[in-house]
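Proteins fold. Shown next:

***
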Amino acid sequence: MKEGRAAEPGDRKSWFEYLSDEDLAFIKRFIMASGSLKELAQSYGITYPTIRLRLDRLIEKIRVLDEMETVSEFELVTRALYADGRLDMATMKALLEAHRQELASRSEKPKS
């Protein structure tokens, strides 16, 4: 949805709206550290490689959310969970395939 325009039914959410509170806090701290991963790692009390991994996962999550043309909200959320490292590839694929089959079976049923 663009700023200055009311949300309409069917509007796709922005990638930003799918980020967790933890993701948003990380982004805020990253900005406040002027993008310095070293400073960010120190503020979290963790190593540089750990903070780099966290940033890489967040970047991948944003890419997935921003670039994917999705069929449904379920697909978008599932892909975001995968990008966030909370689902493995096999689980994501199995869930998406089951969801697509469910959608296909619904569309094949005649409407009463």
Summary: The chain is about 65% helix and 0% strand. Residues 70-112 form one domain. The helical segments are 21-32, 37-44, 48-67, 73-83, 89-108. The two ends are 34 Å apart (CA to CA).
